[in-house]
């Protein structure tokens, strides 16, 4: 761990939208480069970094299910979308000389290592950035829940929830000019007020195991490093 830093090991949750250029779907070159450079900068300060990637820029299982597709099939397709994002992020990181490993919950042995907790921890100890793809490997669970689960398993000090806004508000700041930003929240208040930070299962898991969540704006260059250095950025969720 870098001297004086508040965290030794972190779990970064990145939505699929972070892979797409503004207003577009798929994988955008500029968005991918920004994401990779931010992660490399975070790893360069001596913090062990694991990343859980979403797949919403390619396919949303829940939306497809609402449209009539079989839910289990739709969720597995969403897991495959996270594999595509995970491989894209790995390539982008390695192009800027950042060692990575992609670990997957679904068996795609030609492309990535299977997720094994002890192996994951060993990779982190060797300074490699971990990319967790494939969700939990089970339908009906989101990548938010995956992030909480993997954070517990690898012993992460905090979950960093990367978004496009600078924290959690009591209303949508894009629509309500008087929306108030929270600097700190308790897990129970997030659940009671149905604040859309992560899904209820993910929040409950963090609450039960007392792993804090920091919600911050990742589109601002350098923000991950600022969070890891202890700057008060975004909203921190902790306690009961």
Secondary structure: elements and pairs:
Layout: E1 9-14, H1 29-44, E2 48-53, H2 61-66, H3 71-95, E3 100-104, E4 113-114, H4 117-125, E5 129-133, H5 143-154, E6 158-163, E7 168-169, E8 181-182, E9 184-186, H6 187-192, H7 200-209, E10 213-217, H8 223-228, E11 235-238
Parallel strand pairs: 1-2, 1-6, 2-5, 3-4, 3-5, 6-10, 9-11
Antiparallel strand pairs: 7-8, 10-11
Helix pairs in contact: 1-3, 5-7
Number of domains: 1
Helix content: 25-40%
Q: Which spans of ≥5 residues are poorly predicted at pLDDT below 50? A: none
Shape: globular
Largest sheet: 9 strands, mixed
Question: Helix/strand-derived class?
Answer: alpha/beta
User: How do the SSEs run, as a string of H and E?
Assistant: EHEHHEEHEHEEEEHHEHE
Widest sheet: strand order?
Answer: 4-3-5-2-1-6-10-11-9
Q: What would the CATH topology be?
A: Carbamate kinase
| Total helical elements | 8
Please tell me the overall pLDDT.
92
Distance between the termini: 28 Å
- Oligomeric form: single chain
Q: What is the top-level CATH class?
A: Alpha Beta
| Portion in strands | 15-25%
In total, the number of strands is 11
The CATH superfamily appears as Acetylglutamate kinase-like
At CATH's second level, what is the architecture? 3-Layer(aba) Sandwich
Rg (C-alpha, Å): 17 Å
Q: Can you describe this structure?
A:
The protein has helices at about 30-45, 60-65, 70-95, 115-125, 145-155, 185-190, 200-210, 225-230; strands at about 10-15, 50-55, 100-105, 115, 130-135, 160-165, 170, 180, 185, 215, 235-240. The strands form 2 sheets. It has a 9-stranded mixed beta sheet with strand order 4-3-5-2-1-6-10-11-9, with helices on both faces. Strands 7-8 form a two-stranded antiparallel sheet. It is α/β, with parallel strands linked by helices. The chain is globular. It is built from 8 helices and 11 strands. The chain is about 40% helix and about 20% strand. It has one domain (about 10-240): Carbamate kinase. Helix 1 (about 30-45) packs across helix 3 and helix 5 (about 145-155) runs parallel beside helix 7.
